[in-house]
């Protein structure tokens, strides 16, 4: 399993939901960047255009899938915890905690932090976290990786490769190194006597 660097005392489902929320917060930033309404998620030779929001959320769901090791149970638990966190954003206690966390920066900062616009942004990030968990779970299920470890490991290897190309593919040598690693991982699965 991957070390997320989070407090070991934190329950895994909550730590994974926080990972989803962190990815969702970044996703929102990219969705709001200026640019075309449609993004090419294919290649130059075989373009495939998706609406900007859908393209970014699908990409971030795949980043989450990798962070959670394509583990269906972990993804489902994170989805449940993310839904609970979203529900918590509607409570007075949550509003109070946001206010208190920002109070040391002054009254104006604390009031800005709990403004309707700020709270909408916070809730949006939590809604997207729920969506990312659901989408990652759907990808795992569609790949048959929810009940077969070899399929899970194949999905994880392919997702890791795709994510590397998405994030760093323009860096010289990265695509080739990632492809070599993917081939090595898949060959290892094919040659593993436990899976013959």
UniProtKB/TrEMBL annotation:
Domain of life: Bacteria
Descriptive protein name: Uncharacterized protein
Species annotation: Pseudonocardia bannensis
